[in-house]
Amino acid sequence: MAKSSVFRTFGTSRQLEREGIWLNYGDIKFLVARAGGTNIAYQELLKAKIRPVRHQIERDTLSKDDDNRINAELYAETIIKDVQVLQEDGQWVKGVPTEAGDVAPYSTAAVVALLLELPELFRDLRTCASDSQKYLKEQEAADTKNS
Fold it and tell me: What is the number of structural domains in the chain?
């Protein structure tokens, strides 16, 4: 019996949700876990980070800068698992690019700084990390077949 289309459409891979998928932006790529789903670390840290500012959130008084910082920290700690930069020799190296063209050592702080410096990149990463379609079991099977 063929697998129901609902399972193909909505059956996400727990492994991909927790370990991440590669999102390639040309000369930089990110290993991105899912924001939600079975990524318990994300859900737990989200609760912890919201707790001290819940009153401000409920009253819509949390500043945009504080909101962006909290989310950047949340993503750097639980969603972005790796960042690699393409070197001129064609090799990928782990690190975080700087505007000056250097590659800073990979760290949570460096990822947070990058996300805050490039809000459109951060917006795209957030959109992708929230898209359950990117973490489907069908994608996991295709990745395994291609490796």
Answer: 1
Contact 19, 88 (CB under 8 A): no
pLDDT at 136: 86
Instruction: Identify any residues that bridge with 85 across adjacent strands, giving them in sequence order.
Output: 28, 93
Q: Is residue 123 part of a domain?
A: yes
The model's pLDDT over 93-126, given as tens digits with 9 standing for 90+, comes to 999 999 998 999 999 999 999 999 999 999 999 9
Strands (E), the chain: 21-24, 28-32, 80-86, 92-94, 96-97, 103-104
Residue 3 counted as domain residue: no
Residue 83 forms part of a structural domain: yes
The model carries a pTM of 0.85
Residue 72 lies in domain: 12-146
**Please, which residues have CB within 8 angstroms of residue 5's CB and are 6 or more apart in sequence?**
none
Beta strand pairing status for 28-32 and 103-104?
unpaired
Tokens standing for residue 11: 């059956």
pLDDT for residue 5: 76
Going from the C-alpha of 114 to that of each of 4, 17, 46, 73, 125, the distances in angstroms are: 42, 23, 20, 11, 12
